[in-house]
Design goal:
globular, 8-stranded parallel β-barrel, binds 5-hydroxymethyl-3,4-dihydroxypiperidine
Length: about 475
């Protein structure tokens, strides 16, 4: 697909979304809740990581975040004000199972129960993710995702949540972006728990896949309502550069994309992935029967998309090009495989405040490609959005035209995918609120609602008003 041109800038207008298309917004527990030590919650790996000097910008932590835990009613009202049809949130595992004893913390369950009831009372569909990166610290101390026993604990946690909320949630999502959990957490080290162990990263890939399958079985066995079941992946939409561009793209596609879609949607790891990584691991952590467990039917595949990535083969000698630590790194620019290394290179702009290139055509391409690879699989955009450096105007409003433009262009891309026959069920804007942006702390703002981190006051940004109008009219404005 050719890149967008001024004549084809993805600024569609008047495009109408179908009546059953779901408009939502998303958040995650550690990024918004705060109340880190309250009502029985114990530390997660992100509490430990953010309290480790030098790990997070400015020494920021999620101790208070948006204080959503205490302001949940106000935030529910905000969702009503915006007209959201669905809300995607995640559950903090260390609130539910705070210690290695496995005892259940009823206060943790009560919080999410109130949230789900509050959503349903307002006619907003609850979309609940079990794991958005806040692994209980006691499980990391026992080996984390590199250890198979973590999948036992995840299955028990899924059972508990299925029993507690499975009569009322609209959609269960097992994992959010296991790529980040495995590769950034255990390989590149920029995310918690901050380990630099390539073999552990690949073991984590498998254990996350296995945890997904086991959790789906547990959720299905315990949910008494009629929820949909899903998982959310962040896909690398790749461009290649230089000699061997297609080989570089194939390698990263295997490592970043097909290492999850292979087992989850086809019941196998891609042969080229196993070959590419043979100098790092023999994959003996994959036991007989695992792949059948991982390969469970899902109702909808969650797709997170922000930008494209450009890769090229690297000779291991010449200076590496600039690389964005969050987006491109799979254990530095050159991992795994000692024979042939791949580096991520700078993308042509324009960029968001994250330094990520703005490429709405990549979203259309991704959705079409997924629906070609998995023709019977319904899709949902579970995250898309942008960080920009917002400013509050003298009149108290937050004009953020760049974010509105970003969203408009990506909604146009999604609409084009629909027109091309993709079974796309909905779209969740990341994020409802400015929040704790992981290694960047509070320095990067993704919200359509501004949060003043001194007063915790919420202000709907212009992009939020724009989104409210889109939801109300179901049409991109002319
Ligand atoms: O903030 C994150 C979110 O937690 C996972 N997906 C990407 C977002 C922006 O970096």
């Amino acid at each position: 697909m050719s890149p967008s041109t001024p004549a084809d800038d993805y600024r569609g207008s008047g495009l109408l979304f179908p009546p059953d298309f779901v408009f939502g917004s998303a958040t995650a527990s550690y990024q918004i809740e705060g109340a880190a030590g309250e009502d029985g919650r114990t530390p997660s790996i992100w509490d430990t990581f953010s309290r480790t000097p030098g790990r997070v910008w400015n020494g920021d932590t999620g101790d208070i975040a948006c204080d959503h835990y205490h302001r949940v009613e106000q935030d529910l009202d905000l969702m009503t004000e915006l007209g959201l049809e669905a809300y995607r949130f995640s559950i903090a595992w260390p609130r539910i199972v705070p210690t290695a004893s496995g005892e259940i913390n009823q206060k943790g369950i009560d919080f999410y129960s109130r949230l789900v009831d509050g959503l349903r009372e307002r006619g907003i569909r609850p979309v609940a993710t079990l794991y958005h990166w806040d692994l209980p610290q006691y499980l990391e101390d026992a080996g984390g995702w590199a250890a198979r026993e973590t999948t036992d604990a995840f299955e028990r946690y899924a059972e508990v949540m299925g029993r507690a909320l499975g009569d009322r949630v609209d959609t269960w999502t097992t994992l959010n972006e296991p790529w980040c959990s495995a590769y950034l957490g255990y390989g590149q080290g920029g995310h918690a728990p901050g380990r630099h162990e390539p073999a552990s990263a690949l073991a984590a890939v498998h254990h996350l896949n296995l945890a997904h399958g086991r959790a789906l079985q547990a959720l299905r066995a315990t949910s008494t309502g009629d929820p949909d079941y899903s998982v959310t992946l962040n896909f690398h939409v790749l461009r290649g550069q230089g000699d061997g561009a297609s080989e570089a793209m194939r390698r990263i596609d295997a490592l970043a994309n097909r290492s999850f879609t292979g087992p989850m949607l086809r019941g196998e790891y891609p042969a080229d992935l196993l070959a590419d990584t043979s100098s790092v691991t023999d994959w003996s952590f994959v036991r007989e029967g695992d792949l059948a467990t991982v390969h469970q039917p899902i109702d909808v595949l969650g797709v997170n998309y922000y930008s494209t990535a450009t890769v090229r083969l690297w000779d291991g000698i010449s200076p590496k090009q600039q690389n964005d630590g969050h987006k491109g790194a799979v254990g530095g620019t050159a991992w795994p495989g000692s024979d042939q290394l791949v580096e991520f290179v700078e993308q042509p702009g324009p960029y968001t405040a994250m330094g990520w290139n703005i490429a709405p055509e990549g979203l259309e391409e991704l959705l079409v490609s997924l629906s070609e690879q998995f023709p019977d699989q319904a899709l949902m955009v579970t995250e898309n959005g942008a960080a920009f450096d917002d400013h509050v105007a003298d009149d108290g409003t937050v004009p953020d035209p760049e974010r509105t433009d970003y969203l408009r262009r990506h909604f146009t891309a999604a609409h084009r995918a629909l027109q091309r026959g993709v079974d796309l069920r909905g779209y969740f804007v990341w994020s409802l609120l400015d929040n704790f942006e992981w290694g960047y702390g509070y320095a990067k703002r993704f919200g359509i609602v501004r949060v003043d981190f001194d007063t915790l006051q919420r202000t709907v940004k212009d992009s939020g008003h724009w989104y409210r109008d889109l939801i109300r009219t179901r049409a991109l404005p002319v």
